[in-house]
Amino acid sequence: MLGGDLEVRRLGFGAMRITGQGVWGDPSDPAGARQLLRRVVEAGVNLIDTADSYGPEVSENLIAEALHPYPEGLVIATKGGLTRPGPGLWERNGRPERLRRCCEDSLRRLKLERIDVYQLHAVDPKVRIEDSIGALAELQAEGKIRHAAVCNVDGEQLERARGIIEIVSVQNRYNLTDRSSEVVLQTCERDGIGFMPWFPLATGSLARPGGALDEVARAHGATPAQVALAWLLGHSSVMLPIPGTSSIAHFEENREAGQLELDDNEAEALAELA
Asked: Terminal CA-to-CA distance of the chain, rounded, Å?
């Protein structure tokens, strides 16, 4: 559950990779991207995560083109707070007036009257987080967003944001090799806040033949990426992975990870890899 009134399945879909190279411009196969989005929903995924900066604007446009009018129960989470000066480049801008404009532009692109989950994409060091989150609180009061969320925050920033508005989810980098947000995850577990790990499939050298990840994957007839996702799902009850891809085949592979169950010994062995 997100915010107590949005029921989402524990494996969502991240829509960053349906854009062009460097998360910039249109994908090489826009029709294929729309087909992928339709398959995501057909397969029962009911949480799609995107951002105005993916493309920029491309991901949100493709979601609307492929899925609007949206099926009942589909939760679309988007973000504001980053600007894109060029391919592979990201800059922070959390000024309240800009966040308002970003949200209103996302509403238009997504063809929504209200965004289910609107996330501050990153804290701008030049703007107090209270001011950025205050803009989200105003948008919520106006009925333009249903729930507020944050990304890329530390524990102190999360608590400051929660002093302004209810936060229903946190999206931080977290995977088998990078658990620097463990304290934030523990706060989410304690207080029932959803935790969306970005870059969840960072397996890298861990997937080398003969390693622990490879051994567990072989034992289950699975891929290292599937095992990495299964470990995340088992690691915390509030974990909501949102792996992204531009390929239907890769999406199906990721989806199958939801059926993979690791025993306690396997989970402990993988936990020691960090």
From this structure: 29
The angle subtended at Cα 54 by Cα 170 and Cα 10, nearest 5°, is 40
Is residue 70 part of the annotated active site? The answer reads no
* Candidates 54, 70, 118, 174; catalytic one: 54
Q: What is the pTM of this model?
A: 0.96
Question: Between vectors from CA 135 to CA 150 and to CA 238, what angle results, nearest 5°?
Answer: 20
> So where are the chain's domains?
13-200+238-243
- For domain 13-200+238-243, the question of CATH label 3.40.50.9100 is answered with no
Q: Kindly give the confidence (pLDDT) of every residue in the chain, 274 residues in length, as a single tens digit, with 9 standing for 90 and above.
A: 898 899 999 999 999 999 999 999 999 999 999 999 999 999 999 999 999 999 999 999 999 999 999 999 999 999 999 999 999 999 999 999 999 999 999 999 999 999 999 999 999 999 999 999 999 999 999 999 999 999 999 999 999 999 999 999 999 999 998 999 999 999 999 999 999 999 988 766 676 787 788 899 999 999 999 999 999 999 999 999 999 999 999 999 999 999 999 999 999 999 988 7
Residue with tokens 């967003």: 145
